[in-house]
Amino acid sequence: MMERFKKGDLRALSRFITLAENKDPSVPSLLQALYAQTGKAHVVGITGAPGAGKSTLTDKFIHRLRKEKRTVGVVAVDPVSPFTGGALLGDRIRLVDHFNDPGVFIRSLSTRGKLGGLSLATREVVHLLDAFGHEFVLVETVGVGQSEVDVREIADVTVVVLVPEWGDGIQTIKSGILEIGDIFVVNKSDREGADRLVNELKASLQIEGRAQVPILATSIHDVPSLDVLFSTIQGFLTSSGELIARRRAQRARETVSELLLDLVTSEARNWVAANMKDAKNPYSFIQDFRKLHPEGSLFRK
Ligand SMILES: Nc1nc2c(ncn2[C@@H]2O[C@H](COP(=O)(O)OP(=O)(O)OP(=O)(O)O)[C@@H](O)[C@H]2O)c(=O)[nH]1
Ligand SMILES: [Mg+2]
User: How far apart are the C-alpha atoms of 102 and 86, rounded to whole Å?
Assistant: First the structure.
């Protein structure tokens, strides 16, 4: 399967992604072997309110990249799906146009009832798409700041998509949202209220000391507005080398932390099952454990 992956076999890629999604124990060694091939893709995170137009914009961006003959991998992350109830892939991500294009690979990831791990799986899928040779990897996630998958930890550039209605009735824009975007988009600017939201964002970003961050009003009915957005994304990627390198180093550390947590969690469960036979006081149990393993001793060099 590895040989086929390296030769560009899409079924091998698909199979590896399924392994990552299912938290198969073979994944870390797979990625260890492929890691040297990663780091070439530009990873673009697109996040924002449900229904804001993230998939529509992603679709337009794919069209633009394909015109430039760039290859694109897309991951659409569907957290618990309170909005869609787990709608079908094509339905939800509106990317059906590209299903027959070998230069575009699209996958949606969902928790499918499994708890946790989506963030790690998303990271792994990004690495797989990168190692496979995709020049761009687009990651669509729902939710601003509160979703399980923090796109900032995955992407080289994060695009936050908002809509005019979103600004209604808010006095101050929460700083969590202001911190995560490298580019802010007020989409559906064909609707009332876009200018107001742009101005509110501008004022709030200024207070946060981020006055230089681009805020763009877009509409799918206004092609030039999309051109500006896509050039801004590509401009950020080419001009922010140092920042992106720092983010990637942080991403590598986060990956190790998450893998380590996985390891520790499963070992801890097994260990407790084997060592705590009777229903004794759990707090005494952990106090005894602490005596044997004082703080800082678990991960001694
Ligand atoms: N009027 C208007 N409608 C838009 C615009 N962009 C997207 N839409 C519509 O908004 C709806 C939702 O678009 P999606 O692209 O699916 O939004 P999304 O953010 O991916 O949605 P989720 O993934 O479900 O959170 C669709 O019906 C789009 O056609 C726009 O610029 N103007
Ligand atoms: Mg979508």
Answer: 26
Residue 111 has pLDDT above 70, yes or no: no
CA-CA distance, 208 to 109, in Å (whole number)? 33
Ligand 1 atom nearest the C-alpha of 220 is 31
Is residue 147 pLDDT above 70, yes or no?
A: no
Residues in the chain: 301
Mean pLDDT taken over the chain: 86
pLDDT at 287 over 50: yes
Protein residue closest via CA to atom 10 of ligand 1: 53
- Residue type present at position 253: R
Mean pLDDT of 251-261: 88
Q: Across residues 184-190, what is the average pLDDT?
A: 96
Pocket of ligand 1 (CB under 6 A): 50-56, 83-84, 92, 94, 142, 187-188, 190-191, 219-220
Residue carrying structure tokens 């101050």: 172
Q: What is the pLDDT of residue 177?
A: 80
Interval between CA 295 and ligand 1 midpoint (Å): 50
Question: Ligand 1 test: best mutation among 46, 56, 83, 191, most atoms within 8 Å of CB?
Answer: 56
Nearest-CA residue for ligand 1 atom 5 is: 188
**Whether the Cβ atoms of residue 218 and residue 162 lie closer than 8 Å to each other:** no
Give the Å distance between the CA of 80 and the centre of ligand 2: 14
List Cβ neighbours of 110 (8 Å cut-off, separation of 6 or more): 77, 78, 79, 81, 86, 118
Give the list of residues 6+ apart from residue 38 with CB closer than 8 angstroms, or none. Answer: 127, 130, 131
Least confident span in 43-52, 161-170, 195-204, 230-239: 161-170
Dihedral sign, CA of 134, 140, 144, 147? negative
